[in-house]
Amino acid sequence: MKHKLIVGNWKMNGSMQSSLELVDKIITHNSPAPGDKISPHYVICPPAVYLQELNKVINKSVVKLGAQDVSEYANGAYTGQVAAEMLKDIGCDYVIIGHSERRQYCGETDEMIARKFLAALAQNITPILCVGESLEAREANQTEKIILGQLNAVIDIVGAEKFAEGVIAYEPIWAIGTGKTASPEQAQEVHAAIRTLLISKLPKEIARKMMILYGGSVKASNAASLFVMPDIDGALVGGASLDAKDFLGIGEAAKMPHTN
Ligand code: PEP
Prior knowledge:
The chain is α/β, with parallel strands linked by helices.
């Protein structure tokens, strides 16, 4: 049985003070008591300027730290960018790559995203690769074509073996921050298509182990129905990750019974 993975994307929200308070609540909740069910693994992705300070608090806990973006370049004259080596230096183990907001507002292409994926892996940072279709694409029955196209574009550049070291997040654009979640069946249908693609590229065992998260208006109230789906391995959470009770409620929905 795989642990579920719950990732909080705080986007451009909060202050130093509110970030420390939120992290404190998440860590306190994650001190397991004997007999507890197996908890999911948590990753928080705060704004870049708070990463270093928050790492001082979370580095003794089971919660992992992630960034929301990384430069495709190793170093040099790239004003405003942050290199993967710098993220590693301040304690990041994960980085979100290719979020639809970055594709839309910052013009990120599949090629740039693939280079960011490689830059992260080169520093032992796990890339969380976001893919997702627009409402128009869904209504035109193009969902699978778009999603598999976005994934194949990255696999073609990074190679299947390296691709397997990442995490995938399926995030339908129409469900992000809108309150409209994909139904568990809609999400599972896409996750199953992604798994089939992975199985066609990788040894079956490895393809099955790869984590495929769902993202798009996940809340404590809808998380359990998503997590029972066979190919949904966790969640990438935006809005609900800004409130400890909501975020941890999603984690509660992902707890599994001990098997022994
Ligand atoms: C996101 O932006 O990654 C996201 C899933 O946002 P929300 O949960 O707010 O829809």
